[in-house]
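Q: How do we represent a protein-ligand complex in a form that can be generated token by token?
A: Start from the inputs.
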Amino acid sequence: MNRPIVRHAPIVPGVPHLLHGGDYNPDQWRASKETTWKEDVRLARLAGINTLSVGIFAWAALEPEEGRYEFGWLDEILDLMAENEITAVLATPTGARPGWMSRAYPEVLRVNRDRTKNRHGGRHNHCLTSPVYREKTTAINTALAERYRDHPALGLWHLSNEYGGECHCDLCQERFREYLQTRFASLDELNEAWWTAFWAKTYGDWSHIESPSEHGHGEQDIHGLQLEWMRFTTEQFVDFYEHETAPLKAITPDVPRTTNLMGTYPGIDYFRLAQALDVVSWDSYPEWTGTEKDAAKGARASFLHDLTRSLKGKPFMLMESSPSATNWRPVAKLHRPGVHLLQSLQAVAHGSDTVQYFQFRKGRGGSEKFHGAVVDHEGTERTRVFQDVAEVGARLAELDGVVGTDTPADVAVVYDWHLRWALEDQKGMLQGRTDYEGAVVAHYRAFWEQGVPTDVIDSSLIASPGYLDRYKVLVAPMLYMLRPGVAEAIDAFVQRGGTFVATYATGYVDEHDRTFLGGFPGPLRETLGIWAEEIDALYPEDRNAIEWDGTAYEARELCELIHAETAEPLGAYGSDFYAGRPALTVNRRGEGRAYFIAARTGDDFLADFYGRLVAEAGVERALDADLPAGVTAQVRTDGTTDFVFVLNFTPAAVTVEAGGETIALAPFGNAVVERPRAQ
Ligand SMILES: [Zn+2]
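Then emit the structure tokens for the protein with zinc ion bound:
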């Protein structure tokens, strides 16, 4: 890796431990607080919990009538937490509103894409443009910050909860038009960028532009509109976050701030939102099955952790995870023995400095009353889940040395929200089956299975000067959209000696979703040394093959018909009218190489291809060992000591031979190995 190792400060200043805890709703238990709250604190300490997140969704408890605040209960619980050395992740309550606000000010209610206005209820049901909603948010956040600015329990601010959705009200329409006028110098420029001559959609005045709707302009006719609406929605959340944060920043400048993200949630470009956060946090709910399928589940969960870490390139927070069943999954399966500890250490292995849960104590009502919790309805420490949580608490307490450590990576895989929006809107190739995320995770998994630490980055990072210098290998599955500067940065990376891997469906459109002219992959044609003339979409039962080095690997779904120009063909299609034409190529350019995989393949091809590439490119693995399938190794380091996490996502006991040592892993087991870092 070509960048220095960095040791980061603990997330909560002055707390040099991995944080362990979860969402706690004492406001739901005010009637029995004399017994329940004290018991909760006792149980928290018993489970090795050193942080609790409070105040999420507590607006009605904090401001039961407009302008009348009730902070007494929060004072009491924060005092109790401070006395017991439990750090408070204190939330602003804006994830859900009290009913008085919706009744007095209907403008705060969201309007849907079909232009229907919501009733009061649910959560995330606010118009982010509404001046009233913004004013009420400032008032409650200011009151919270002023009251608790010097409270010894306050460690971190948690803004709202899981931002999401969009609003199409008249206020938001106006704001969208203002936003567009910052993006385009003139209406002519917008019309050209959005190719509005198609189907007579040319706009004659800014006031004619409306947000996308099923009943009007949308992804059917103006792709640029839909794309820009998603960018606008992202900017709305960034702007609202900054609005919500302003009083906290002014009154408690030393208390870090975050909001909890949701992996690859499609509605917000998290790379953009993360720029506004002090620390990134996210909510992870892998769909564990207790079977061999968990190897794939584990790879995807690791991908999401690596993506979350890469948003800011430093330790993050696992803000929510389930200690047992996840109530909103169609099958709320229990964690098998070992799985809770495994998923918790997995997050730490990939750069989390916290393991937190939704939820600490199960509520008695509402949709989440059967979601896994540290404290069950039974109410004591006698449950299996409580013991699992206490085991995690004990293990985390032994890992203070991991706090703030780095996660160096030689490899970066690209995941890009803007690209995804455009790719999923396009009408061609495979509608509804392009599966961009699945393609990215499949390439990622080939590194994960080898124990190769990997970053997950987007076009904004690729295009930032010098960013790619740290990597040896850059992999960009389905790099359909090339935003400004991306092709140039990738070409420079290859010329300097980097290894680049691209696939079918690369270099089709620009940042406005207009196709490139002059042959795909557009601005990457010279870098890859190929011309992609056509792309063949296959029915689900259709198969072709990539014949490479004596093996015929299955090809399916999308097969691109390419010409090797300066590239050297390495593999060829096995059948159909394009049998024998190149399907795998390498272009030697400058000091580096650019590979092109022309079709979607199975995991077997990716495992063999990346197995060779890792060796050829001199990529570092966490362990110099052959890892059994479904077992990964990841490393965190302070520059002197490496902490190697070896994680078994299979229901079988396995052993790993590394450096003359045998590491035995139970079913869904783990090991953390410390070793001096090779200099
Ligand atoms: Zn609105």
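Residues 223-251 form the longest helix (29 residues). The pocket of zinc ion is lined by residues 111, 127, 129, 167, 169, 171-172 (CB under 6 Å).
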